Amino acid sequence: MESVFIIVVILVAFFFVIQKRYLRQDELKDSAYKKKGALLNSQETAFYNALISAVGQHGVVLAKVNLANVLTPLATEKKQWFIANNRIAKSYFDFVVCDPRTLEVRVAIELDNGKELNKGKVDRQKLLIHVCKSAGIPLIGASIKHSYQVSRLRRLLAAHIDLIESDKEVRFCKRCGSPMTVKIASQGEHKGRRFFTCSRQPQCTYTENYNVVFDEAE
């Protein structure tokens, strides 16, 4: 009697597995797909190629990276955690530059598509600024252009990634015309960041952001 019961249990389990397998296959047969095409449009691809050239072997460039793959909420309560996680689950970074060994994100880059501001765009910008500031990830903004100067991108990244050496350049003070030198902030909000300062200090106190890359005038 016991052997009959075991056989029945085995047959039921076998029938259940087979039925579940074939039903799943039938469901998949009802869904057909096609490729959407390139992950990036032509404007994004141009920036991506310039970014790769600027980074070189000192980082890995990834595009369209979901925020939830990079960030996690600090909330300890489950409800708060899910609310915070849902807030970032449907958004992404346009580009990130990662450590080449660990793929840890070092810099996030938001590429402005040039479209007019609307509520969705403003909300996205606010979210990116908030999460990056909270997590300590540098966020760089860039505008879509027809072409990009790799040397400027490299200088922008060099302010955040020590391994990237910026191209040597000579800047002149816009106040007195003297050559400018690069220094590193020793205190304040931008501690550790590079900046240009007039070589005639303290007579001339003009300074300039090291990260200025997309100057229309140039």
Automatic annotation (TrEMBL):
The keyword Metal-binding applies. It comes from Vibrio aquaticus. Keywords: Metal-binding, Zinc, Zinc-finger. This is DUF2726 domain-containing protein. One of its GO terms (molecular function) is zinc ion binding. It holds the Pfam family DUF2726. The keyword Zinc-finger applies. Residues 173-218 form the GRF-type domain.
